[in-house]
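G., the chain you wanted modeled:
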Amino acid sequence: MLENKDIQKLAKLSRLEISDVDVESMKGHLEHMLAHLDELRSLDLSGVEPMTSVDEPVTVLRADVPGGCLSHELAFRNAPRVDNDHFVIPKVIG
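Predicted structure as tokens:
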């Protein structure tokens, strides 16, 4: 059973301001949630496999086959500046 001081402490830890009027309402909601958690704790889940997501996604991968690569001429064709077979870019960090 929660007491008013428990609600005030939770509010303080959560950095929430709760008026004295709202403490009783909040107390009822929290007690309801805690009762629900107790019900969940009482379930026998010994035969249930843990899961990492709800939808169990299937990833379809293609074969990793090496392909051709660009020649230097083709790679540097649209570069604004090239120096010694490297892209030249403006300095980003001062």
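The chain has a mean pLDDT of 89.

Shout if anything looks off.
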